[in-house]
Amino acid sequence: MPDELNDRNFDGLSEKFARKVYGGLKGEIRLAVIWRDLTAAIPELEDGQPLRILDVGGGLGQFTVRLAELGHTVVYNDLSWEMLDAAQSLANQRAVKDRISWHQCAYQDLGELGKFDVVLCHAVAEWLAEPDKLIARLRSYISDQGFLSLTFYNQNGLIYRNLIRGNFKLLDTDFKAHPGSLTPGMPLAPDQIKHWLAQSQLTLRASSGIRVFHDYVTTLRGGHEDSDSVIAMELKYSVQEPYKWLGRYIHFIAGK
């Protein structure tokens, strides 16, 4: 049986994903932090010549569509038909559907697509049967001066959240997410990802935490009641030590 058949497919969960992840402040924080990081590391995304971009595990298509609107050439990929359909609907609403190349398949089956200035791969590694093979595969698509934007479910954040909530027994066993849950089944340590980057001869250029405090709040008070203030504080502390390493997700930008 091919390894990719064991990778998580979001068919049947796409509506729940859209509602739970991007239907509220959690999703707004994720998008804000990643976009800030990308434009800081790659200013050409907003004010330069068109780039060639590959979005692996593109999900609902927010980044694919935004980049296409800015005039970049974008290739979208996702394992889920439902995710691709949602992304195409968004692209159609924004009148950029025909400017995007669409691929529904496992990332392992993408084949020869040439080189890209930017490869995006957000919240994919933690759903794979063999996450250790992902970065080496993505490297093959990165141009000599290109970048990889990678986010992953942070093992540090999972441990810290369970400590806060008193779920000590969960920390004494191997973590297993519920099959119908949107909680990833494979939390990853930042040092492990750094090791895989080094193995693939990629250099870490920037790092940040996504939701470094939002998900840990149990009682809303003060600034927690103001979404704009929460996003501002998340953006501020997402790049500061030691807070960024407690993010529920980590964002790495790497290059050759």
What does this structure look like?
- The chain is of the alpha/beta class.
- It has one domain (3-255): 3-Layer(aba) Sandwich (Rossmann fold), CATH 3.40.50.150.
- It contains ten helices and seven strands.
- The chain has helices at 14-20, 25-41, 44-47, 62-69, 81-93, 134-139, 155-164, 168-171, 190-199, 227-237; strands at 52-56, 73-78, 100-104, 116-122, 142-153, 203-210, 249-255.
- A seven-stranded mixed β-sheet has the order 3-2-1-4-5-7-6, sandwiched between helices.
- Strand 4, helix 6 and strand 5 form a beta-alpha-beta unit.
- Helix 2 (25-41) packs across helix 10.
- The chain is globular, with a radius of gyration of 18 Å.
- The model is unreliable at 1-5 (pLDDT under 50).
Please outline the helices and strands.
Blueprint (H helix, E strand, L loop, with lengths): L13 H7 L4 H17 L2 H4 L4 E5 L5 H8 L3 E6 L2 H13 L6 E5 L11 E7 L11 H6 L2 E12 L1 H10 L3 H4 L18 H10 L3 E8 L16 H11 L11 E7 L1
Parallel strand pairs: 1-2, 1-4, 2-3, 4-5
Antiparallel strand pairs: 5-7, 6-7
Helix pairs in contact: 2-10
- Distance from N terminus to C terminus (CA atoms, Å) equals 33 Å
- Continuous helix count: 10
Q: Using the CA coordinates, give the radius of gyration.
A: 18 Å
CATH third-tier fold name:
Rossmann fold
Describe the global form. globular
CATH hierarchy: architecture: 3-Layer(aba) Sandwich
For the largest beta-sheet, the strand count, sense and barrel status come to:
7 strands, mixed
Low-confidence parts: 1-5
CATH class: Alpha Beta
Strand content: 15-25%
Tally of domains: 1
Order of helices and strands: HHHEHEHEEHEHHHEHE
Tally the beta strands.
7
The largest beta-sheet arranges its strands as: 3-2-1-4-5-7-6
Can you give the mean pLDDT?
91
Which structural category do the helix and sheet elements fall into?
alpha/beta
CATH homologous superfamily annotation: Vaccinia Virus protein VP39
The helix fraction, in percent, is: 25-40%
